[in-house]
UniProtKB/TrEMBL annotation:
Gene Ontology MF annotations: sulfotransferase activity
Name recorded for this polypeptide: Sulfotransferase family protein
Taxonomy, superkingdom: Bacteria
Subcellular localization: Golgi apparatus membrane
GO terms, biological process: carbohydrate biosynthetic process
Native source species: Planktothrix rubescens CCAP 1459/22
The keyword Endoplasmic reticulum is annotated on this UniProt entry: no
Coiled coil: 5-39
Keyword vocabulary terms for this entry: Coiled coil, Glycoprotein, Golgi apparatus, Membrane, Transferase, Transmembrane, Transmembrane helix
Length: 452
């Protein structure tokens, strides 16, 4: 009897061990299946992207000076640029043109020598207005238009942009040669809404993005990649981004410290650091971001970009140009009222809410701007990198207590004179009253959660 019972217990024990082994094998098989599915989806994504046709800007020819200098002060084309690839659904043009005797009212665009459309010249171009201060109509010398693939899609084609002069004569200023081809790799620099949509859909499905109603195309552009150290960095202006862009470049595109020192304008190198599609969807990459108290970020942006900014070196602030132009009369109170009422997508990046920059639901590390000295060693250890300590506080604003009443009501010009004469600006807490605190807390309530 005891022998039968022992045999039964032994068989039961063997059966339990086999079940446990099968369960462990099932878990392993599920993991392998998930990994295989992820690899297949990534492979499918790359294949799908490589099947999308694009337009290559093979050549951009600009008219010779002797042909236009009698009629024009100058002209330029910021986009598209030679060598770029564009989605065949749309091709976007942005530029400027300034007539000598009168403003240029319109341009004519031709496709393979046949008139296609006329484009008004009426867009703001503050950087041109700053160069030509004596020309009253220099403010609105810009042009912008889009062409669809249905209008210009051929294997090879030529676009011509001509000025319509007062005497109805035409003067060709640009000749743009296009050719259609497929992408050769997912790392090619493509201006594509279709790719953004494909990548966004993939990320939404597989990487648990931050919000379902945000501007993913914008957020993707705010990430830089270091392939050698396998990290993605989400950069936010006014959050030590110059320092961390430099660090990303150091381990990505510069082979020596000497080359890095020569790269004084690090922001011009960010296009070389844009992540590939495969890197955006690679969950093994370490992702980090620097966040900042929104109250302090707004003060810094207002003082640095609107008050202390060199007036001979104005940045093109796009839709925010009006406040750039009026910044010497604008009080901090006026500035807060402006950002409170303006939709986020119309705000300049220096005061756009930080949550708009986030692409993923979670990052491996959130560094606090106000606590960088303590947080940087943790990042250095995680990524095996070195961050130059002197760069972190390079652009520190000289705050000091000032015995002035209600500094939030001081005009930008008054603050500028204080800065020039005393080399200081009011402490951040001096710039807020209860009403402004309430407005900022509500407008940037999601940012406040990030900085806690």
């Amino acid at each position: 009897m005891f022998s039968n019972q022992n045999t039964f217990e032994l068989n039961l024990s063997n059966l339990e061990n086999k079940i446990k082994a099968y369960e462990e094998e099932i878990v392993q098989l599920k993991q392998q299946l998930e990994q295989t599915q992820s690899q297949l989806e990534s492979w499918w994504l790359r294949c799908k992207i490589h099947r999308i046709p694009f337009m290559e800007i093979s050549q951009v020819k600009k008219a010779k000076r002797q042909d236009w200098e009698k009629n024009l002060f100058g002209f330029g084309l910021s986009t598209p640029k030679e060598g770029e690839l564009w989605d065949t659904e749309t091709l976007e043009f942005k530029g400027w043109i300034l007539g000598k005797d009168a403003p240029v009212d319109a341009l004519e665009v031709s496709f393979n020598h046949k008139p296609l459309c006329q484009v008004p010249v009426d867009q703001l171009r503050p950087h041109i207005a700053e160069k030509f201060k004596d020309i009253a109509y220099a403010d609105n010398c810009g042009f912008e238009f889009k062409l669809s693939s249905k209008q210009i899609l051929l294997d090879e084609s030529c676009l011509e942009i001509e000025v319509i002069l007062e005497n109805t004569q035409k003067l060709k200023i640009f000749e743009i040669h296009l050719k259609q081809r497929l992408t050769q790799s997912s790392s090619e620099n493509v201006k594509s809404q279709k790719i953004s949509l494909i990548v966004t859909n993939y990320l939404q499905k597989n990487s648990d993005l931050f919000l379902m109603n945000k501007d993913y195309e914008f957020a993707i552009k705010q990430h830089l990649c270091c392939e050698s150290k396998k990290f993605l960095y989400c950069f936010i202006p006014k959050n030590a981004c110059t320092t961390f862009k430099t660090v990303t470049a150091k381990y990505s595109i510069f082979s020596s410290e000497d080359e890095l020192e020569k790269a004084s304008k690090i922001h011009s190198h960010t296009n070389q650091l844009k992540p590939k599609v495969t890197e955006l969807i690679n969950e093994s990459y370490f992702k980090f971001i620097i966040v900042r108290n929104p109250f302090l970020r707004l003060i810094s942006a207002y003082l640095n970009k609107l008050v202390i900014k060199d007036r001979n070196n104005l940045e093109n602030f796009g839709q925010d140009f009006k406040i750039m132009n009026e910044s010497r009369l604008m009080t901090f109170q006026d500035f807060i009222q402006y950002v409170e009422k303006t939709p986020s997508q119309q705000l300049n990046v220096h005061w756009r809410p930080q949550v708009d920059f986030l692409l993923y639901n979670s990052y491996n590390m959130y560094l606090q701007f106000e606590n960088l000295k303590q947080d940087i060693p943790k990042l250095e250890k995680a990524l095996d990198i070195k961050i130059p300590k002197q760069n972190v506080a390079k652009n520190t604003t000289p705050y000091a207590y000032l015995d002035v009443g209600e500094p939030w009501k001081l005009h930008g010009e008054e603050l500028w004179q204080i800065r020039k004469s005393q080399n200081v600006v009011p402490l951040p807490y001096q710039m807020y009253n209860d009403e402004l605190i309430a407005k900022v807390r509500e407008r940037y309530k999601q940012d406040k959660l990030l900085s806690i």
